[in-house]
Here is the input.
Amino acid sequence: MTSMPIELYRDDSHACLMFTDLIDGDGHAVQSNQFLIVDNGTGAVIDPGGNLAFNELFVGMSRHFSPQKLSYIIASHADPDIIASLDRWLTSTPAQLVISRVWERFVPHFTKVGKTEHRLIGVPDGGGRLPLGRSELWLLPAHFLHSEGNFHFYDPISRILFTGDLGVSMMAGRAAQVPVTDLKPHLPLMEGFHKRYMVSNKVLRLWVAMARQLDISMLVPQHGAPLKGAAIGQFFEWAESLKCGIDLFDERNYQVPTVQIKGRGTAENGA
Here is the structure.
């Protein structure tokens, strides 16, 4: 069922491909987007996904770029839908994992003992610029959007900003492959997720101030459709005014529970 990737950008020496809907649609796991960037024969996969997506992504990527030439597995953060397949990628390719230093000692839990030794690049909180072929990727701080150690990735050649869980819309299928150019009708697919998963308005405002300094052709999240054209500026305006996360919580959210959760742990026969 390997799907064809969406070509986000291509020139003679540089390409950005998006793979989407790689998980069988049974509704039990969230769909996600994975990305391959190649510059002058050097490749990086961004947010490669969990085990459910590995086979489809590996086979699909192999049609366009040899996994044995892959230099980096780049993770915005350490959620299972981002890198639960890490052990298989480290087994099947020579790639190094690039991830926040916050998660360096946690990601080995996704692999066999010793598999990550000498294959981790820990990114400091301030980010940095990662060489890729004759170009580079900019690793931009995006902490608490939504993870403690979180980065977004800007490709200065394609001018695409890969934003992980920021800019997400809860949609899948062909609709998620078409860039959104007007944000307003798209907001109902975004608002609930952002209010729950983004930590606070303060960090959104800090992020928007940084992102506005970039020349962005497309904003591409890990779930749902890319944003393009007028929708990028509209997203900045919406995000910097959005109340979310701890902004919406108070003492009512922290009460000793009285509701019983159904499960199999009920005692039987008085035992």
